[in-house]
Design a protein that fits this description.
- The protein has 203 residues and is an all-alpha fold.
- It has one domain.
- 67% of the residues lie in helices and 0% in strands.
- It contains seven helices and no strands.
- It is globular, with a radius of gyration of 18 Å.
- The model has no long low-confidence stretch (mean pLDDT 93).
Length: 203
């Protein structure tokens, strides 16, 4: 989280220069949200420690390092100002329903279906896609962590992983709003958000 804040603080004035200041509210909202989440991140770090000390690298493996984010570039691919949009509330309802019915495995399938059409326009809806891809990585890895914890005589981390999944889904509304604010700039070829998030490989 500290790395994300540092990256976005460094790039905010660069985007402001490219956009005649239009990007400043986007950068401010993103950095503010990351700062608000710092205590939450510390709480998850503390709660995950018992499993990570036993050699189960949950958070270390779920989250990818910011160092893999693309390098800054002044120009990106120009997007259409209008196009198909992700509806965060609907996606959240579908994923929560699948999790309640069939656990992490069902949520992983629902997330994969939600992500697939977004790959046709990789420079748009970047923050929503980032959260969905991170949630997908979590749901694919989570069953293995639960099994390994049981084999090592530890309590199940299911509750912590489920809480982390719901935190991802809770953030979709904010991400949808920020993506909407960024899209007019992306349509001008200013790749804000598009190059500020690390790619999340499928586990």
């Amino acid at each position: 989280m500290h790395d994300a804040i540092a990256l976005n603080e460094a790039r905010a004035p660069l985007y402001a220069s490219l956009s005649d200041g239009a990007s400043r509210p986007i950068s401010r909202r993103l950095i503010m949200a990351e700062r608000v989440l710092l205590p939450v991140a510390r709480w998850f770090d503390r709660r995950a420690r018992r499993w990570e000390r036993a050699g189960i690298p949950m958070l270390e493996e779920i989250f990818v390092p910011m160092v893999t984010a693309p390098a800054f570039a002044e120009r990106g691919r120009e997007l259409r100002a209008a196009g198909p949009r992700v509806r965060a509330a609907r996606v959240r309802r579908v994923i929560v329903r699948h999790y309640r019915d069939t656990g992490f495995e069902g949520a992983a399938l629902a997330l994969r279906e939600a992500i697939h059409p977004m790959r046709a326009d990789p420079g748009a809806d970047c923050l929503v896609r980032h959260l969905l891809e991170s949630a997908h990585r979590l749901t694919v890895l989570a069953p293995g962590y639960i099994v390994t914890a049981g084999e090592r005589g530890l309590s199940s981390p299911r509750w912590l992983l489920a809480l982390l999944l719901h935190l991802h889904l809770w953030g979709l509304g904010f991400a949808e709003d920020l993506d909407a604010r960024a899209r007019p700039l992306q349509a001008r070829g200013i790749p804000i958000l598009a190059q500020d998030l690390p790619p999340i490989p499928a586990p």
